[in-house]
Design a protein that fits this description.
The chain is of the alpha/beta class. The structure holds ligand BES, manganese (II) ion (MN) and zinc ion.
Length: about 500
């Protein structure tokens, strides 16, 4: 899909479809007013006749509106207020593109960028419109014999008047196209089934990225190398699987090598059966998405490389399959992590923290400015925050604040949970330094507490994306979202300006 800014007035537009928003009560937005004027009140008459209720997300195609040079106008309902919330704006854009995808057109222009959105400016609306358009046209059908969904839309124009914000709009559009490419990459990788997307497959994908972008370099650690280093926690998870674990280290050199890097650590469990602490059949559906943290790291590095951000970044991905078998780790086994701390594994289904703790310790060697891990770590965070917010925990408040801000900016939001010392005692083990589970209470927090024991030497934040990275459960549509690539990219873009 090609996106571009367009400053041409609505009445002069020559395109397949013009998209405009309408509120239930308020005056017509500017583009609608102009159309109304040259068409002898065509819109006003239609509304007075009661042919269109502007409820949020409703759409209606108008054909050959008098005196307009474009053959179609798509009306999109915007509800009964005069200012939209960010989520409402997303919904409106989404429904406009879903409607476009039902007809055969190549080009369209959206005037939805005119709509007032609470505390958001035009560059923000440009970004959201491009992001939602890409989202609405996304379809993962590579395993379908009959590809039913074939959007014909090729060119999307976004209305932006030539005013003082125009340059900012151009920058915003360029940024979001880079971010979109990362989001799409992440979604495609995450949506693959685990019989294809194995730890070696993830390693191959990382290698491919490094071949494509010359500022990206890759190093893969095999199990033998990890054993030599002493990554006993990570390897304990891999023991039950015939798939070899891989530690994927991707480095992006967008600035001087001497600059301390931002390290992104990704949970890459390509399938989580729970191991010997086996999940129920229902609980296992969706567990191909347990590598969304890894996919996010790859997608974010791709987007950063695409935008040539002037930063030093490192991605460390722990890619492992969690399986039960005769060689699998058993409850009450004790292992020694790379940090030297011993861990009593009370539940083999709490495997994410076991692979991440070694990846975190491994990150020390990069002498990082900050470390951010991304993981579908706990079911508890889904209970606490649902699918709207990513769980955020951190040992350094300025970093937490930067991530919260980036979440608000991108509308890919995070919500902070406490990482108080008080929770740490739930992780006591009678036989080892630490247990890998801390009981039912506050278990999204105790999972982060576990990780914090391995993050003492740097500023660190943990993003628990179990609720946000994918719609995992049966029933509704299962699909990866590409989150939190937008959040991380906004964070990185902000860092690159410092
Ligand atoms: N991958 C799961 C977490 C998860 C659950 C992600 C549901 C998405 C949806 C993780 O490895 C896990 O199994 N966590 C356990 C931890 C428990 C055994 C302490 C959980 O959350 O139940
Ligand atoms: Mn698990
Ligand atoms: Zn898991």
């Amino acid at each position: 899909m090609k996106f571009s800014l367009d400053s041409t007035d609505v009445v002069k537009q020559q395109t397949d479809c013009i998209i405009i928003g309408l509120f239930e009560q308020a005056d017509l937005p500017l583009a609608a007013k102009q159309i109304d004027k040259i068409s002898q009140n065509y819109l006003t008459k239609l509304l007075n006749q009661g042919d269109f209720q502007a409820k949020i997300g409703r759409t209606l195609f108008l054909h050959h509106v008098p005196s307009l040079s474009s053959p179609r106008v798509l009306l999109v309902g915007c509800g009964n207020k005069t200012t939209l919330r960010a989520s409402e704006y997303q919904k409106i854009v989404m429904s406009s593109i879903k409607a476009l995808n039902t007809v055969k057109i190549q080009r369209a222009i959206s005037f939805l960028t005119e709509l007032p959105v609470e505390q958001r400016d035009l560059p923000w609306k440009i970004k959201q419109t491009a992001a939602m358009t890409a989202e609405a046209c996304y379809c993962f059908d590579q395993f379908k014999s009959n590809k039913e969904f074939k959007p014909t839309l090729q060119e999307m124009h976004l209305y932006a008047p030539k005013n003082e914000q125009y340059i900012a709009c151009q920058t915003a559009l360029k940024q979001i196209l880079g971010i979109n490419s990362g989001v799409e990459f992440t979604k495609n990788l995450a949506n693959l089934p685990s019989n294809i997307c194995t730890p070696p497959y993830l390693a191959t994908q990382a290698k491919k990225l490094s071949q494509h972008y010359k500022r990206l370099t890759v190093k893969i650690l095999e199990e033998s190398a990890m054993a030599k280093l002493g990554m006993g926690a990570l390897l304990a998870v891999s023991k039950g699987s015939v798939q070899p674990a891989k530690l994927i280290c991707l480095e992006y050199h967008g600035s001087s090598k001497k600059q301390a890097p931002i390290v992104l650590v990704g949970k890459g469990i390509t399938f989580d059966t729970g191991g010997l602490s086996l999940k129920s059949p229902d609980g296992m559906v969706g567990m191909k998405y347990d590598m969304c943290g890894a996919a996010t790291v790859l997608g974010t590095l791709k987007a950063a490389a695409e935008l040539k951000l002037p930063l030093h970044l490192v991605g460390v991905i722990a890619a492992v399959e969690n399986m039960p078998s005769g060689s699998a780790t058993k409850p009450e086994d004790i292992v020694t992590s790379l940090s030297g701390q011993t861990i009593e594994i009370m539940n083999t289904d709490a495997e994410g923290r076991l692979i991440l703790c070694d990846a975190l310790t491994y990150s020390e060697r990069y002498k990082p400015a900050v470390v951010i891990d991304i993981a579908t770590l706990t079911g508890a965070v889904v209970v606490a925050l649902g699918q709207h917010a990513t769980g955020l925990l951190s040992n350094y408040q300025p970093l937490a604040q930067d991530l919260l801000d980036a979440g608000i900016e991108s509308h890919d939001r995070a919500w902070q949970l406490p990482l108080w010392e008080d929770y740490q005692e739930q992780l006591k083990s009678p036989f080892a330094d630490i247990s890998n589970v801390g009981g039912k209470q506050g278990s999204a927090i105790t999972a982060a507490c576990f990780l914090s024991r391995f993050a003492k030497k740097f500023h660190w934040a943990h993003l628990d994306v179990a609720g946000t990275a994918a719609m995992m459960m049966g029933g509704g549509e299962r699909c990866a979202t590409g989150r939190p690539v937008p959040l991380l990219m906004h964070y990185l873009i902000n860092q690159s300006k410092k």
